[in-house]
Structures are given as C-alpha cells and as structure tokens.
User: Fold these one by one.
Assistant:
Number 1:
Amino acid sequence: MENHPKDAETGWDPALYDAQHAFVWERAAEVLALLAPQPGERILDLGCGTGHLTSRIAAAGARVVGLDISPEMIAEARRNYPELEFVAGDGCNFHFEQPFDAVFSNAALHWMRDPDAVARSIAEALVEGGRFVAELGAEGNVERLVEALRRGREAIGFGVERDFNPWYFPTIGEYASLLETQGLEVTYALVFDRPTPLEAGEAGLRNWLRMFAASFWSDLDARKQEELFLVVEQRLRGDLFREGRWHVDYRRLRVVARRAE
Ligand code: BEZ
C-alpha cells in the first residue's frame, strides 16, 4: 500500500507483498474504470505500493506520479517500473509544485491515521474541477478478523486493553462530510462487501496477518505468535475458509469527488 502497513518495528516486505497479495491491485479494475485516466492527464497515485496500478494508469497515456510512505515499497516500484516517477512521502502531508488533474488511491487511505490532513493535501494537490477517485476499507472491514485477533490474544494470555487497530475505516457519511469540509464535492459513493480469497491455501491467512496485522502480534515472541495464529485460524475456519482458501471479510468504500471550482 501503499501508504500502508508501515510498521515501525517490522517495516514492509515488498517481496511478500508482490508474491502473495496481488489481489490488492488485481481487484482494482472497477475503481480504475471510475478514474478513467485520459492521455496527457497528470495523475497522482496516492499510496502506490509497488507501482502496479501506477503502471496501469500510465498505460492509459496519463503522466502519473506514485507516492508512498514506505521507502521499501518505493524502491521496489522503481525496480518494477524504472520508466515511471515514484516519490517517497507521507500521505498525511504532501505537496507538489505542479497540481494534478486527478488523485487516485486504492487500498491505502485506511492506513493514513490523519484523514483530515490527507483530504486537505489531496484538495490542495488538485486543479480546480480536478477529481479524487478512491477505494478503501469501509466501517466493518475485516471485523471478524479483528475480533478473532483480540479474542486470540486473550486466549493466549495477553492483554487487549490498548487499541491494536491501526486502520481508519469510515462510513460513507463520515467520509463524505470530511471531504466536503476540504472543498471536495462527493459525486459518487458506494459501500459493499467484498470477501476476498487469499493465495497460498492454508498458509494464506497467516501470510495476510504477517503482512498487514503486525500491530496485533509484534509484541509477542515467535512461539506466542505461532500460538496466536493457530487460535485465530481455529476461530475463523468455519466462517472464512472454503474450497481450500481463506477469504478475508473485506468491506469497501468507493468514492468519487471533485474539487470545487
Ligand atoms: C484492506 O485493503 O481493506 C486492508 C488491507 C490490509 C489491512 C486491513 C485492510
């Protein structure tokens, strides 16, 4: 992400991200269609991760810049697409000299913990009439997973008193009014469930947990981590494992807005 699972202790693993989590960009065709990038447009891919969607936007003929907080992801994006422009920077506070016709973001905004500051930076980065097109986790996203992680920690004798949840999953109403406060007029918004199958069969859930949910286990030693993963798998198997694959309980918020003229 993409301005995402940057954890102070674990950092990002672009190799694991690209090898096992391709669904992040492969499932983005519809939100890309909403963006409908045009030849010659200047577009920012906010939380570009390893650059795969940045490259699809470029393939439409747009002049695209990828921005991500993770230096590891940016380095991988540059290796993947050396012909494209990638910048390491914070989605909560970014500034470019030249404005953009559109700002695009997929599966990244929920990692950015100051959504007002993100929306302000987006509005300031757009030309008048410019568009913002994004998909992120909606309220209720990965709810069963989070519950299983909290209960799992308790089951192995660890506390759940602090807030482990590193994500921002807004409702439509909350997010629309946040955008409006920054002068972005919402023209489309949709919330929908999107159960998402993971790669790697049985190992899929723990790959996901290792990649994305470090705040729930990074204080545990390796033995306790293993115990937690086993308990979480047991709790979720009936709900989220079918036909040999884990399915994460994703719930998406898709939004289009335009900067007022
Ligand atoms: C998501 O894309 O919804 C997501 C990814 C990783 C962690 C949490 C949510």
Number 2:
Amino acid sequence: MRIKDEAAHANTIGIGGHIRPDGDCVGACMALYQYLVKVFPNKRIDVFLEQPADVFSCICGVEHIRTDFCTDVESYDVFFALDTAKERLGGAEKFFADAEKTINIDHHVSNPGCGDVNYVDAQASSTSELVFDVMDMEELDVEIAKAIYIGIIHDTGALRYSNTSPKTLEIVGKLISFGFDFSEVIEKTFYQKTYVQNLLLGRALLESIQFMDGKCVVSGLAKKTLDFYHADSKDLDGIVSHLNQTAGVECAIFMYQTGVQEYKVSLRSKGNVDVAKLAVFFGGGGHVRAAGCTMKGTFHDVVNNLSLHIERQLKAAGIL
Ligand code: AMP
Ligand code: MN
C-alpha cells in the first residue's frame, strides 16, 4: 500500500490514534499528518488525538491536533486509524465509522485489521515504522523524519527491546541522516522525567511486591495518590518497564486506579509469558511482551485474576 495512492481521490482526510496516546501513536499520527499536508496541500486534513504529553510538543504540527474531537466535515473521504483497532479511537471512533474509506495501520498482534485497507504487521517494531514503509522517501523531510524517529524510539525502549529488527535500524539510519539532533530527542522525550514522575516511579518501586517465586512483580497507585501529586496517566509511562527489569521476573504488572474498583493495567513480559493473550482475555490487547487492559475489582482481585493465567503459562513453559 502507498499512502499517496490510497488518499489520491479524497478531498477530506482524517487521522486518529488510540486513547492515552503514547510516543509511537503521536509520532505516527503527526508524521502522517505532516506528510499528507505536504503531498496534498489542497486537501482538508484533520488529526484527532487526546492531548499528548508535553514532551511531544517538539513534534511539528502538534498544535493542529483536534483534541476536542470537533469538526465541520460531515464524513471524511478517507480516515486513518493508527496504532490501534477502531475500538480504542476514543472520540475519533465516530469519524472512522462514518468515513467513505477506512485505512488501518497498526502493529498490535491483537488487531486483525479493522479498515477497508489494512497494513497490520505484528512483527513491526512500531506503527511509526509501518507509516515510514508506506511513504515515498523523496517526500520526507527533517520534521517528518523526527516524528517517525520519536515513534520508533518510544516503542522500542530506545532501540533496546526485541521488537527492534535489522529493518528498524536501517530505517533509523535513514531518519537520522536528515540531520535532527537525535540524541537530544531521545534524552528529552524518552529518558527525561519530571520531578513528580520520579516521585511516582519511586513510590511504585518501593511498594512493589514480588511473588510467584520471584517470577512476578506487581505494583499499583491509588487514585488518591495520583490526585495528591496532581498526576495523570501521562506521568506513569515507563514504570511497568522499570518493574520488568527486576532480575528473575518473567512478568511485571503495574496498575493505576481509574475509578471505584477499576484499574488500568499494564503488563510486560521477558518473553516467556504472552501478555497479549492475558490482556485480550480481560478485554484489552497489545503485544506478546507489552500489553494492557482495564479491570474491575480491588487491587488484590486484579492481582489474583491475572496470577491464575500467568501461573498457567509459566507452568506450561516449564518455568514454574
Ligand atoms: P500500556 O501498558 O498501556 O502502555 O500498553 C502496552 C501496549 O498494549 C501498547 O502497545 C498499547 O497500545 C497496548 N494496549 C494497552 N491497553 C490496550 C487495550 N485496552 N486494548 C488494546 N491494546 C492495548
Ligand atoms: Mn505502538
């Protein structure tokens, strides 16, 4: 699939990504937005996302994101869903449903493809990598390259996770040849944390519990703690990966309270536990080593429900 061909006959084009957008989602959406604006200067192009974290304000065009999910376009000729299936488009789900033609670009193993045209590859490091694939290299510029780079960096843990392939690195090589300060981009968008983010990470680590013979680690933050620090989900990025770095741990669980007896759960695995399977069972999705879902119950209910499945998988793999 080529974006230029798929969107050639459209007058109005919309783009949406998943709720609580992460670096890959923001990078992919903004790279595609910039590309379409550049290639089709006379078309109407809108991008819809929930407000991204402040660190992504270095991406060109973020001020154009329609975070209020308002538009005067009745129905888009083409609508792109990036880094998700349609169910997690949030306020953009209605635009996707009403569009003449839908295109889905994603790398979640839990997404079979929900568009009229699908470019879904669970082997890809990131949706940003897939967005690069379907663009014409001669149309890229330094700002588009930077947005794609940010997406790849965030979904590969700065090119560290096993989803980083030779192809990913080849693409990154091409991207950094555009000449942006890639070192600063990694430092400022990926590693740098606010003081509050560090405090929350500290609390989560301090209060974490290792169980199942050290193969699992869990931590959670209650709503009152987040309120005390005036924090939201954007301040919790990276905590679950940190927990998963614990020696001996096969599966890490981090959850934060989103309501009465309701938690947003993030799961990470070293590879022997398929956390996508787990997340899908509880109504979420993701990848083998990184997945998420929302679960009802107390902190202990959530741990108990997840543990049962983790234990089964570890026993089947002969690790427990
Ligand atoms: P998280 O731990 O929430 O950052 O998510 C880890 C991975 O799982 C990301 O690729 C998310 O896009 C994906 N993910 C998280 N929650 C869900 C969900 N409810 N449905 C589908 N995918 C999810
Ligand atoms: Mn992604």
Number 3:
Amino acid sequence: MNANLFARFLEAAPADRGEPLLERPGRPPLSWRDMLEASGRIATLLRERGLQPGDRVTVQVAKSAEAVWLYLACLRGGFVFHPLNEAYQPAELAFLLQDAAPALAVCDPAREALFRELAPADCQVLCLAADGSGSLMEEAARHDPDTGVVQRQPGDLAALLYTSGTTGRPKGAMISHGNLAANAAALVAAWGFTRTDRLLHALPIYHAHGLFVGLGCVLMSGARLLFLERFAPDAVLDALPRATVMMGVPTYYSRLLQQPGFDRDACAHMRLFISGSAPLLPETFASFRQRSGHAILERYGMTETGMNTSNPLHGERKAGSVGPPLPGVELRIADADDRPLPAGAIGEIQLRGANVFAGYWGLPEKTAEAFTADGFFRSGDQGTIDAGGYVSIIGRSKDLVISGYPREVEILLDALPGVAESAVIGAPHPDLGEAVIAVIVASGDGAPAEQAIIAALKRQLAGFKVPKRVFMVTELPRNAMGKVEKAVLRKRHEHAFN
Ligand code: AMP
C-alpha cells in the first residue's frame, strides 16, 4: 500500500473527476480533474528539474488555487512542502532558506531577486503571483499531467513547518505523510465531513490550521472548498449561504458578530462552525450562539501534533473547553517530573499518537528535550481535564508569570462588566523581580476603573495572583492566527514599574 497522503485523497475523490473541488467568488469552479492535472504537471516539472523525493520546496506566495496545487504536487512527488508566512522579512527568510536548505524556492515575482540572493547557491527559484501567473505555472503547462503518485512510507516527510518561536529561533517541525493522514482521517470522522460538505476556507495556507486541517478535511472526504483569499467579513457573509462548515480563528467569529447582516438566515445551510489556534472567549461563544443558533465547536492543536482534542459534533460543546482527546490521541496532564496527574489538577499537556511529529529539523537535542522518556510530546501548554474528560487550556508555560497561570486571571477579568477581553503578563518589578499586570480592552459600556478591577479580583483570587496594575488599550496585538502576542505586550510594558 502507498502511504502517500495524496493516495488517500484520491481514494476519497468523487468518481466523476469533473465535480467541482474549489470555488472562488465570481470565477468558474475548478474541478477535481483540474486539480489532478495541475498538480501532476507541477510534480513532473519539479522532477524534471532534478528534485528528488525528500527534497524541500520552500514556498512564500499569496493564497491561491495554484498555491494549493503546488502543495499537492509536492505530496504526490514526495517533495517536502515548506510554506512561509507572507509577512516574513529578509532576515527571517535568510534564516529559513539556509536552515531548510531547499532544492527549490517558489516566491512572488517581486521577490525573485531577493530569493536568489538569500537561498543556498544550489537552490532553484520559480515564481508564482497572487493571480496564478509566473514561471511556475508557465513551465508546468508544458509538462505531463500523468505523473502518478510517488510511493511513500508513513514516516516519510510531507512537510516542514517552522513554529512561530516566540522565544529562541524558529524550529522546523518535521511532519510525515502518516501524521497528516492519521489526523485528517480522525477529523473527518469527528466532524462528520462528507462529499456534500462545502467548507468556507478563509484561513491562510502557510499554517497548519488552513493547510492541514482545512484542506485535509475536504480532500480526505471528497468535499468542496469555498475558497476565499483572506478573511473579509463581507466576502464571508456572501459565501455563508452556500457553505455547510466554516473553520476559523476566534477573531473571525468576533468580527462576524460585528456585522449587522450576520444572523440565523445567513447561516441557514451551515451545520458547523469550528474554532481553534487561540482561545475562544466564552462571551464570543455565547453571543454567537444567540445570534446564529450555532454553538461554535472549539478544538485544540498545534503545528507539532496536528489536532489533539475537539468538542463533540454530537453532545455537549462546553465554552472555555477544547473538548476530549480525539480517538487515537493519548493526552495526559503531567507534573514537572512527567508524572500523570489526576482529573482536576493543572499541569503540562503531553501527547502521544500517530498525529505527533517526527522531531525538529536538524535539532536532535531539541527533539530529545521535547519528548518524555516514555515518548510523550511536551506541548508547553498548561491545562487540566475535568471529570467528564474535557480538556481546558490554562496557558502557555513560556507565558507563565512567576505567580501563577495568566489564563486563570484572564477568565475572571473577562467576566467583569465592561471588560471585553484581557491579557495578563509579567513585568519586571524592582522589589518582586516580576509582578503581574493586566492589559484590558473595554466593552462598549466602558471599562471600570483600574482600582475597581483590582478590588473585584481581590475578592476572587489569592492576593499574589492579582494584577498590580491594569492598562486600558483599544485592541490587543494579535498575529495572523489570532493569537495574542504576549511578547509584544511584555516589551510595551517592560517599564510598568520603573
Ligand atoms: P501553532 O503551532 O501555531 O498552531 O500554535 C499552537 C498553540 O496554539 C498551542 O500550543 C496552544 O497554545 C494554542 N492553541 C491552539 N488551539 C487553541 C485553543 N483552542 N485554545 C487555546 N489555545 C490554543
């Protein structure tokens, strides 16, 4: 049997290859046949340019159908897809191109000279523009579409995705065909994907969420993509009546709630809204349910592991929880010595299963540190499991403040009247070394005064956990995946106490 993920996608594809696979607003749909031909031509081109299975292909391009075909061409040719955030600047690109040592880089035509300068000497460079033009597709058009699917073992690499690395240098997570196939199959089953589904896809495809979870669920179930180049509330509202499922980061859902036209009618054909990559506020969950009639399904995953837990398709979806572990994923809460803790205790979330990556590219020591003696991956996330088996995330260990778990304080802050959302961080303090501060976004009715917030928290928390200062802002800094950038906040508030 061929463990190539692309072979699994072909098994799920509709027998009629003329069926639409990818729809874009105002343009004719692209079929499964279009995908097969284009990805075949690109795979042949790459092979004829001398690429061998296992070679990396570094890609920094705009989201487009052609970019998806390039990803699929890499899978079927056995090349390792290495996508980059479009926002990366020359210094970041220089590091990533040298570290991944690709045989080919594909970039926007405007960056061709830069890529030629920064890439290793033996790396070829091709171009792909946002509209699909450029040397990649021009050359591919002259190549044979009937390329077959290269034989792969489950452990062979399919992709290299660098973790955002808020501390230290980014690390390349080596993700295998087996990892992706196991996770996509688990998600198709957990979320009930079938050929009749239409996934509203507005996420970027350089990140695991849009690339593996979004595309994976569609290609593994023979469903269809409603493909938007980016999240724009108007375009999402236009596409929703044709969609059955949407995936997003929490900010997508809070922004949809700001649209007057977002209501039950707009969601008439929707069966599921899925959220992840950052915590979904219980208030967003509640407002969304009230406005749309839908309980957003929150799940939890990461680049290194794919998806680990999910609230259920059928059954209770708990606000503030990411649900029980998915079938095939072993999850435990462990203490600092990697000993499993009982239900209710807070500790590090550790993971084992076919979804867990093979290690960090070129970093055997970091890989060894990342796993326990009995083979569990140390996620760096702090969490707890309740008696019903539902997991909640309390925070990132690297965001820990000395006096406790920021998330615990954030949850209480968010529940205060006048507070829309909050972030809790540690700031250098002349006496204490570090002291807790809170950064708050007020809700419409205006936030309470700093002293009122501190007094309210003192009634609910041990004194050492209560923020010493509260700062009001209009907006929290977030990255493209909706994660609050705590490192940015720490920098902004480094002089809070001196
Ligand atoms: P990334 O590797 O960029 O996907 O980031 C993974 C990290 O995002 C995880 O380790 C968590 O800290 C965070 N994360 C993902 N999903 C959730 C969620 N539903 N709630 C809270 N944090 C999440």
